[in-house]
Write a structure and sequence with these properties.
single chain, 3-stranded antiparallel beta sheet, about 400 residues, 7-stranded mixed beta sheet, alpha/beta, 13 helices, binds pyridoxal-5'-phosphate
Length: about 400
């Protein structure tokens, strides 16, 4: 049997591997504190769950349109207006089974041998994996600690060549918690005017998760790039709905934009037909219903990131920038003498703390680990106590 080579180039999301190992150790009776996984440790708010149950009881069991139910797309239009001030049309909105399918669609629309795609490194691991799958050249944009883990417009623009087809940006960012300030995004957009051949995918799935008054800037607020801009967003993080598989994306529509929207709609028809109806009703309830639970979750993430920063910085050899967004911290562990993945794996096996090594997010992630603030303050404190104890007794020879 022979499968196509492209499949041998597909990578992994190692947070899932860490999760599986942590679960196996837990199964053996070990007490594992899991700071490895990128999902809120909160329940989906009740009114959202109720909306899905009601939809099922009301008989919404069948196929829905490939682009999503009209009323779910309308809800995304309302939500986009609230968060960005920009009025889009439902004809630009695709309801997707999670955030990842938008990545897949955008990258497979533009990636092929000979093409180049720019992506953040360290960044969400699926970007690089999917670019490799298409055979395009994956060109990393280094995301630097000294730049507050924001992307640099200048460095990004310097990587563009005539072969560049797609630029992927992500702010607030996984795995670093970096938020790129508006002035840097303005510089990027101004520079992109000289490169009209480059499409942009902006992954804004953490859009509401910013702290310290550092506001998120949506690329949607720049009309000059709208005809080549794809916005990735979804319900997973904001409303603690990772397992529902509910995402949305905003695409340019029409022949002037290479009919991107229609191409993705056809991809949906061919691959997943549609997103299940009860989840789409839940999605509407999430957008239109009370946001108290979301705000409570954000307050919890805010206190936890401060706690993580303070406690990690107190450990000799660790330097932890205060994350400005999302719910991750990305401490620099280079001075401990450990390689990041070795440290992550030994902490899991020997100290029962699950986190993810920086290189799982790209080569520029060496020297860092990602901690997800998805555990109670007590558990986070206990985890960092274990990390400190481990390092007290296990420093490698330097
Ligand atoms: N984009 C980023 C930056 C993420 O961190 C994640 C999930 O961790 C996703 C997209 C994917 O979201 P979903 O679980 O909805 O597919």
């Amino acid at each position: 049997m022979q499968t196509v080579a492209a499949f041998d180039r597909i990578g992994e999301e190692n947070a899932f591997t860490v999760l599986a190992r942590a679960a196996a150790l837990q199964g053996q009776g070990r007490d594992i504190i899991n700071l490895g996984i990128g999902q809120p440790d909160f329940r989906t708010p009740d009114h959202i769950v109720e909306a899905a149950i009601k939809a099922l009881k009301d008989g919404h069991h069948g196929y829905t349109p490939a682009s999503g139910l009209p009323q779910t797309r309308e809800a995304v239009v309302r939500r986009t207006l609230q968060t960005t001030g920009i009025e889009i049309s439902p004809d630009n909105v695709m309801i997707m089974p999670g955030g990842k399918p938008t990545m897949f669609a955008a990258i497979t629309l533009f990636g092929e041998p000979g093409a180049e795609i720019l992506y953040p490194d360290p960044g969400f691991p699926i970007y690089g994996s999917m670019i490799d799958y298409t055979g395009a050249k994956a060109v990393p944009i280094p995301i630097r600690e000294e730049n507050g883990f924001a992307f640099s417009a200048e460095e990004t623009l310097s990587k563009i060549t005539p072969a560049t087809r797609l630029l992927i940006v992500n702010s607030p960012a996984n795995p670093t918690g970096g938020v790129t300030p508006r002035r840097e995004i303005e510089k990027l957009v101004a520079g992109l005017e000289k490169h009209p051949h480059v499409a942009i995918m902006s992954d804004e799935i953490y859009d509401v998760m910013t702290y310290d008054g550092e506001a998120h800037t949506s690329l949607l607020t720049f009309p000059e790039i709208r005809d080549r801009l794809i916005i990735l967003n979804g319900w997973s993080k904001t409303w603690a709905m990772t397992g529902w598989r509910m995402g949305w994306s905003i695409w340019p529509n029409g022949p002037k934009s290479a009919n991107l929207y229609d191409k993705v709609r056809k991809l949906a028809v061919n691959c997943w037909s549609c997103v299940n109806a009860p989840s789409q009703f839940a999605g509407i309830a999430a957008i239109d219903g009370p946001q108290d639970d979301v705000h409570a979750m954000l307050r919890a993430f805010d206190s936890r990131r401060k706690l993580v920063t303070e406690k990690m910085n107190a450990i000799d050899g660790i330097r932890c920038a205060t994350p400005k967004g999302a719910f991750y911290a990305f401490p620099n562990i280079a001075d401990t003498g450990f390689k990041a993945k070795d440290l992550a794996s030994r902490l899991l096996e020997e100290s029962g703390v699950a986190l993810v090594g920086g290189p799982d997010f790209g080569a520029f992630g060496e020297g860092y680990v990602r901690l997800s603030c998805a555990a109670s303050q007590e558990r986070i404190e206990a985890a960092i106590g274990r990390i400190a104890n481990f390092l007290d007794t296990n420093r490698p020879e330097q």
